[in-house]
Structure to design on (347 residues):
């Protein structure tokens, strides 16, 4: 059997509902996406890890049985679902599920990943490993290595964003530098992006997908539902099959050769991502600064406090030394940022 996941110019597109809800729902999505030759695999969840109890937790094995009908009606469509326990893998094998993914709340746990890896050994099922919820590249790498050590070769990583103190308007902070570093450490490993769980809002799916393609991801996993507003899970981020087709039409696949050697191109794209990230952080910093200004005005405090400024500068100089950055450069940068903060607080 050829591998399901490979590094190629043509991205692997996986689409399907967050959760399997009824045979009609699954069949309706399968019918729409098989009409589009770009989509080769359908996703659906039957065991849903919910952050809080009481939500819809998936229909379990009965929903997996519907896979039989889909295989019969659409024999070329590959099927994948999330697994979190060894028993889930046995059932996926029984119902001929082609690929499984280990979710973000599971890939964070080395014991569980180890048990899943053993259950997957020799199963012939392809495996996707989502990034753990915490922004820790070692945990993500470790989960992938545990799957590899069980002799599984058809593997991909899925970037679905991270839980951070501030998610900057995303449901899960993308922190693009982490998947970029994963790609550097494991260049042979295909990496897919899940813009639905990063964005958490359907309006963000198109731009996040384009960003992923610009960074040479090998595919996308997009949540797609016939009636997103009434979906039992993740209703705000799911899109209809028609919206999916529009997004896929709009995506630009950039050619590596347009602007020079591929390494140069990739590194420039990394710089662009970092530059955009720096601006977003600066905007965040200025907002906090303005809020501090309001408090200072309310308490009749001076805007500029020399001891505080001394402390900020010393902190930054210490960090500059630790990071091997030029101290003069960091001093100038810090003064510039501080000056802008004062200007905003004066307003
Ligand atoms: C999902 O894919 O529906 C899911 C629960 O994803 P994650 O593990 O990324 O939260
Ligand atoms: Mn979901």
């Amino acid at each position: 059997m050829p591998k399901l996941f490979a590094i190629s110019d043509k991205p692997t597109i996986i689409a399907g509902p967050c959760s399997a809800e009824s045979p009609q729902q699954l069949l309706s999505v399968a019918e729409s996406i098989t009409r589009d030759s770009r989509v080769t695999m359908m996703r659906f969840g039957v065991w849903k890890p919910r952050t809080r109890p009481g939500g819809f937790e998936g229909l379990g094995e009965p929903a997996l049985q519907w896979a039989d009908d889909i295989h019969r009606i659409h024999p070329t469509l590959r099927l994948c679902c999330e697994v979190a326990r060894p028993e889930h893998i046995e059932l996926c094998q029984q119902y001929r599920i082609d690929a499984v993914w280990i979710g973000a709340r599971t890939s964070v746990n080395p014991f569980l990943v180890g048990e899943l890896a053993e259950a997957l050994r020799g199963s012939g099922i392809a495996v996707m490993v989502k990034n753990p919820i915490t922004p820790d590249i070692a945990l993500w790498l470790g989960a992938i290595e545990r799957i590899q050590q069980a002799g599984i070769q058809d593997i991909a990583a899925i970037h679905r964003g991270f839980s951070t103190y501030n998610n900057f308007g995303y449901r899960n902070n993308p922190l693009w530098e982490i998947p970029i570093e994963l790609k550097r450490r494991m260049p042979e490993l295909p990496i897919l992006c899940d813009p639905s769980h990063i964005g958490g809002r359907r309006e963000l799916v198109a731009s996040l997908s384009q960003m992923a393609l610009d960074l040479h991801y090998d595919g996308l996993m997009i949540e797609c539902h016939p009636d997103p507003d009434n979906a039992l899970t993740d209703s705000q981020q799911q899109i209809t099959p028609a919206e999916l087709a529009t997004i896929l039409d709009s995506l630009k696949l950039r050619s590596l050769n347009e602007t020079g050697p591929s390494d140069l191109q990739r590194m420039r794209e990394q710089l662009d991502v970092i530059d955009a990230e720096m601006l977003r952080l600066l905007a965040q910093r200025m907002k906090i600064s303005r809020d501090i200004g309001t408090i200072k005005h309310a308490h009749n405090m001076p805007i500029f406090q020399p001891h505080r400024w001394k402390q900020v500068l010393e902190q930054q100089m210490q960090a500059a030394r630790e990071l091997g950055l030029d101290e003069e450069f960091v001093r100038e940068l810090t003064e510039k940022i501080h000056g802008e903060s004062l200007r905003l607080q004066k307003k």
About this structure: The longest helix spans residues 262-298.
